[in-house]
Amino acid sequence: MDSWSTPANDEVDEVWRIVKRIEKLLPGYNCGECGFSSCREFAGKLVDVAGLVRCPILKQERFSGRAEEIAGLLGSSERTEEIVGVLDGLMADFSLSPLPGEPSCREDLHPFNPEARLEEGDIFRYRPLGCPITHFAKVLKSSQGVVTVHLIGPVHLLLGLPAPEDIGICLVLAFEGTICRGRRPEVGETVRFLPEHCMMQKVHSGVVVHSEGERLRIEGIDLKVW
């Protein structure tokens, strides 16, 4: 694919609309015969019609004519940079960066520890459910058992302070940030995204519940990618 050249957002959106149209023209069996985990991922990797030979099901008579339609779509698109997770090798729809002036994306957490009492300004450590990495966070607000935080890293080591309290495992409920690379999704869409501050560069999935310009809120967070 072509290298990233920071195209206008409407151009990026058009490319990803074409990718979604190609995905719908593929058989949709997610069989893995092409070497990718899903038809969606295969659609995002295609750069020319020659790549369609990797899909044996598309050759069946019932899918006649679809290869030609895909070829037409490929000819009308300019592909963008792949956004790929380092840990899992999965392709993301976009990267999520912090809101302007903030150190990381905002995250909503639900601590599993019933004794955790967190207030605005508190710094603590925890481990997200499904992630092996300890996170360090600062509380922005806390209400009804949900804590909104910024990730700040182990700053106590730099300052020579004691380690923050470890409250155990937390469920990540939501991310909020801005799109820095990739396409702009629709509200209600299940997406794959790569948080810029993720130490493992692991692709996450979730559902877009709010979109305002480049600002997004994504809920239903899962480290399993759908």
Automatic annotation (TrEMBL):
The keyword Metal-binding applies. PROSITE patterns: 4FE4S. Residues 14-72 form the 4Fe-4S domain. One of its GO terms (molecular function) is metal ion binding. Keywords: 4Fe-4S, Iron, Iron-sulfur, Metal-binding. The keyword Magnesium does not apply. InterPro entries: 4Fe-4S_dom, ACDS_complex_subunit. PANTHER family: ACETYL-COA DECARBONYLASE_SYNTHASE COMPLEX SUBUNIT GAMMA, PTHR36214. This is Fe-S cluster domain protein. It comes from Methanothrix soehngenii (strain ATCC 5969 / DSM 3671 / JCM 10134 / NBRC 103675 / OCM 69 / GP-6) (Methanosaeta concilii). The lineage of its organism: Archaea, Methanobacteriati, Methanobacteriota, Stenosarchaea group, Methanomicrobia.
